Amino acid sequence: MNIKLGTKIKELRKAKNISQEILAEYLGVSFQAVSKWENEAGLPDVTLIPAIASFFEVSTDELLDYNRMENEKKRDAICDEAAKCRNVDPAKAEQILRDGLKQFPGDDIILNNLLYTMRSPERSEEVIKLCKTLIECTHYDDVKYDALRILAETYHETGQQALVEPTLEAIPEIYFTKLELMGQLLEGEKSFKAAKDQLSINLDSSVEMIQIMKGYLTEKGNDAEVKKCEEMQHRITEMLEE
What we know:
Helix content is about 70%, strand content about 0%. The protein is built from 13 helices and no strands. The radius of gyration is 23 Å and the shape is elongated.
């Protein structure tokens, strides 16, 4: 391992314009540890090297034999295993992911999956902290936007309504989806499946939006419009059942 690794970490951190505290939070270590690395007073544990490389989006070939693709496959397998039991046994799913973090410290994808096992009111502070860390540190747009969504939902659920709108405003508006484009641009069975999946998502979302509209119109006493909403809901529900 290059004895000047700490200097390299310092250069990369400054180029990314982040603090030692942010890097430490991402890696699950103290900022004092990061300071020691950067002052060449110590070296990161070898298990942290892949996470550091991933964070700064640089190769670690000169430091150790790090196969990025192979590690991503292992990481994805951990997330898939956790997803299988997430709904029925969230505690088990969380343990699988936390064990995965021992192998891949600070991994964005594992941390993003971890959020889905922690969605209980009593853990809202922990969820908020993790969301903020991912928003600040991840270089995956989908992870960032998912963390923003969960953060907004958590603010809403905990009565911090003033923080909901500015959080949502940080999410860019999306005017088309990958499934829509696949339905439009692919052919045959692939096009059909994408179109069918997108239609199902759209119909489910429409039912939810109509329910929200109904609630508002009911409060306003607009019975005629409430009835229209109920008719729309009924028609969409029939389509979903077909």
